[in-house]
Write a structure and sequence with these properties.
This protein is of the alpha+beta class. The protein has 3 helices and 4 strands, in the order ββββααα. A hairpin with a 4-residue loop joins strand 3 and strand 4 (about 45-50).
Amino acid sequence: MSRRCELTGKGVLTGNNVSHAQNRTRRRFLPNLHQVSLQSDALDQIVRMRVTSSALRTVEKKGGLDSYLRGADDDCLSIKARRLKRRIIKAGTVAQG
């Protein structure tokens, strides 16, 4: 399983540990990932995803998973999130029409 957020696409970054003597050794900056259950109102079901803490805050700010995914760019979403986005949009159009 990759260390990548399913909603924002944030992944592992690399850099250097720099000591007081300016010795540089390579290191990895890992994203703050959590396995969470998010409620989809349009589909009326719970979806388990692996997301970062910052993505969770953004989902809450946008008003839920459905509204976040409707406005999200497909390039940063995982395949699972893209499929979920299509299902949410389809369920929304059926409910309106």
